[in-house]
Write a structure and sequence with these properties.
Layout lengths: L4 H11 L3 E4 H9 L3 H8 L1 H18 L3 E4 L10 H4 L3 E4 L2 H10 L3 H6 L7 H18 L2 E4 L5 H15 L1
Parallel strand pairs: 1-2, 3-4
Bound molecules: adenosine-5'-diphosphate (ADP) and shikimate-3-phosphate.
Adenosine-5'-diphosphate binds next to helix 1, helix 6 and helix 9.
């Protein structure tokens, strides 16, 4: 949620041969409505089911691609079969500061149903942090680095991992 997945992915595709896809974008186009609307109208379980459909497609059909996922996608059982898992890490308060300092901040916050209640969002972050770390093949600390710096580090670490 707001750690910079999209921004880093855009830099990666500029400086490498990778293509990138974003699971939330795929879901929005499958449903022809926003993630926010899907949560509002159908609830979270319905959304997670769509993530499952996407995860199976990614596992079976997608290679050589940087996949940005929504913050809860890591719960998909086949995550590790999809590819190398990269965790972009930063303290909760730094992530929030970033989102808030963006000129489009209010809109960005609104788009993220689980960020609407900041106390709950912080609890979710605390709960997920050890799970993210346990699943990650690569961890990148994105604090105080530009998206381009993060992209370069990501490509280097992926190459070393392969
Ligand atoms: N490395 C960075 N340094 C400063 N701000 C950043 C960086 N990466 C992203 N941002 C800003 O943080 C916010 C969230 O970034 P975004 O790429 O949309 O995150 P995500 O895809 O993880 O939700 C945006 O306002 C973006 O401009
Ligand atoms: O953390 C989560 O469970 C979610 C994060 C969102 O994506 P971002 O991480 O890109 O904000 C989006 O998939 C949905 O609102 C659920």
């Amino acid at each position: 949620m707001g750690v910079g997945k999209g921004s880093v992915a855009r830099e990666v595709i500029k400086i490498s041969d990778y293509m990138s896809v974003d699971t939330d974008d795929l879901i929005e186009s499958m449903e022809n409505r926003t993630v926010k609307k899907i949560f509002e109208k159908e609830g979270e379980a319905y959304f997670r089911n769509l993530e499952r459909k996407v995860s199976l497609w990614l596992e079976n059909c997608v290679d050589n691609t940087l996949i940005s996922t929504g913050g809860g996608f890591y719960k998909q059982k086949n995550l590790k079969s999809i590819g190398i898992v990269v965790f972009l890490n930063s303290p909760f308060d730094k992530i929030l500061k970033r989102i808030k300092s963006h000129s489009n901040a209010a809109k960005k916050l609104k788009k993220r149903p689980l960020l609407n209640d900041l106390k709950k969002a912080k609890e979710l972050y605390k709960e997920r942090l050890p799970e993210y770390k346990a699943l990650a093949d690569i961890v990148i600390d994105v604090t105080d680095k530009s998206a381009l710096e993060c992209a370069k580090e990501l490509l280097k670490k992926v190459e070393e991992h392969a």
